[in-house]
Amino acid sequence: MGATAGAVWGRSEQQDFRSRVRGTMLGVAVGDALGAPVDGLDLAGIREAYGVEGLVDLGLGYGRRGAVTHLTQLTLFTVDGLIRAQVRRDTGAWHPPTDLHRAYLRWAATQRDWGPDERRKDDGWLAREEWLYARRDPARSLLLGLGDETMGTLEAPKNPGEAGPEAAARSAPFGLLVGWEPQLVAQLAVECAAQTHGHPAACLSAGAYAVIVHGLACGESLDGAVQRTLALLAARPGHEPVSSALQHALGAVRQGMPTPDRIEELVGDGAAQGVLAVAVYCALVGEDVRHGLCLSVNHDGPSGATGALTGGLLGALHGETALPPAWLAELEGRPTILELADDFAMEMTQGPALHGPTGSSPGWLARYPRA
Question: Partner of 221 at 20 to 30 A CA spacing, among 123, 158, 282, 326?
Fold first, then answer.
């Protein structure tokens, strides 16, 4: 698989990339937090609770405004796994799906334990963040898929019939591997999706989402990134449900003002490809980031997942400064998210200065152990 070690980054490029990394991760989290309080409600229920316009501001979830769910938790562990894959490469070991699986098992431990276990010295800093041990209604497929040490693969996936959106919703960070070729980004996201969601549409939706984010992080337009993703998907067996959903989203953009009915039609039964279609549609038609995010959560489907995917796209497209500051001010875990985002940006742009054959930063290896 590709890597970024040989890339040379100018200062302005580094700043732009860091803003997009921050935007992507904060966008996933703020979209997740926006949608979480109405996840599982139908549109009538949302309007009854929040008024005729539906949800237009952060609501109360898990006892506070701005609370995130397992979708954000897993996105953070995806980033942690990607950084540690780069660090472990120095040892001659290079199999990112294994490093991601280990990261997801560290998340699974947070769902079983009351708090960090200080005896596990190889867990790194993220697994010691106590706020991540809150259990936020994780999907059964996640707990089953990560319930033992066996890693699901494309040949032997975990939960082979599971087509939900949770794997796609944790896959934005794969798209931030801007030094990788798009097809390798897709392949890694697909392989890692199979660790919990074995249905081909769920795996390919995760891959497609990662490639769209990759295009945005490289400076493409959203429409251009989707078109490139469709071309890449066409070469993969079983792509039709995902390709059709993305084409449906692009077609809906040309049908006039967005309506809840149009979003309902796109989301369908809440499977991964429908949630991806809603995210693309809302990111394209939203008047601004706030409007796009609100559109993405006011429907009968899985509002947390649609909000998270939409937020990731908008954050990668526009960078962190475009996200609603009042929402960011209340976002749970924001300091951790920013710290991890900056670490990821630093690893991707300056990794050789942090670790390598000629010497490594002890502080960096304590944060991201090679074990």
Answer: 326
Residue 331 to residue 334: CA distance in whole angstroms? 6
* 3 state SS of 288: coil
Phi, psi of 86 (to 5 degrees): -65, -40
Residue numbers of the domain that contains 244? 11-367
Q: Tokens for 178? A: 């801007």
Does any domain span residue 335? Answer: yes
Q: Could you say which DSSP state residue 321 is in?
A: G
To the question of pTM greater than 0.85 for the whole model, the response is: yes
pLDDT tens, 189-204?
Answer: 999 999 999 999 999 9
**Distances from the Cα of 183 to the Cα of 86, 148, 169, angstroms:** 19, 29, 19
CA proximity to 22, closest of 79, 68, 96 = 79
- Listed in sequence order, the residues at least 6 apart from 280 whose beta carbon sits closer than 8 Å to its beta carbon are 212, 222, 226, 246, 249, 250, 313
Number of domains in the chain: 1
Within the chain, where are the H helices?
Answer: 11-35, 43-50, 70-88, 96-112, 140-145, 166-169, 182-193, 200-217, 222-233, 240-253, 260-267, 272-285, 289-297, 303-318, 325-330, 334-354, 362-367
Q: Which two tokens stand for residue 297?
A: 């959560």
pLDDT (tens digit per residue) in 281-325: 999 999 999 999 999 999 999 999 999 999 999 999 999 999 999
CATH assignment at residue 113: 1.10.4080.10
**Would 4 be classed as within a structural domain?**
no
Q: Is residue 336 scored above 70 in pLDDT?
A: yes
